[in-house]
Input
Amino acid sequence: MTAALKATLSHWTELSRAVFVPHTEAEYQRLVTMLDELVDEVGNDESHPLASLMEVIGILIEKYEDQHVPEPEESAILPEEPPKQS
Output
């Protein structure tokens, strides 16, 4: 086992409460809340120590949405035509 894996293993129990693949709506919502907090903290600062965590959480959310959130129908996203004038 590498030193990096040993270090990760020693922290994983605590870390896995924050970084996980969501399988339920409640888990998904926990990640969305965490991402909101990370965005408030990190902003656009790519050098921030939590920037990569923000990216990972975003990818986990996107994966869940791809699998569980239906795409809006095209007609639902097109603007309605204004009423015709007589």
Residues 21-68 form one domain.
